[in-house]
Amino acid sequence: MGERVMATERNAVGLTVPIVRAEGLCVGYNMVPVLPALDMSFYGGNLYGICGANGIGKSSVLRALANLGGRISGVVKFEINGEQVEGEEARKRGWMLYLPQRRSCFLEMSVKENLETISRRCWTEAMNQVACLWGDGNRVVAPLAGKDARCLSGGERQIVAVAALLASRASAFLLDEPSEGLAAQMRDSMYEGSGSAW
User: pTM here?
Assistant: First the structure.
């Protein structure tokens, strides 16, 4: 039985976009399925949300899409310019980035080092990209450049992690609870920025 994930459209900005397809994707724990087989298609220039109660398997679906575990069966393909690869290869190439529910900063690094490492760009180039896509995030991150990530609040770490993804050259972002710990204004502007990143 297939499950459809509803999409909320945002305008694309002409960047190269992937098509992500999952066919017969079955996810679970210890080889025990927690959801029926899923058939899903994700198109560039859109925001998609996986909704449901706690514990229903939303994070497991994202991890399976990213080829980080939990997939029992099925196929997931990322396609850019006619070339298809699976999740692990898409990550290696920088086509896709995954942000887990637990905030994804390198605590032993400074904010500047986090942004450069995750985005694969120099600080100036990364911050210019963030400024274009997420002005609110840029205003928070810029003054924190030299600060260690371990010294940040939970909300600040989340902002740095999302900003680093937006600054990257990736064409697909898989974000697990990206607005957790963010104020309403930051959350809303983040979603607008994410929609523009494609």
Answer: 0.77
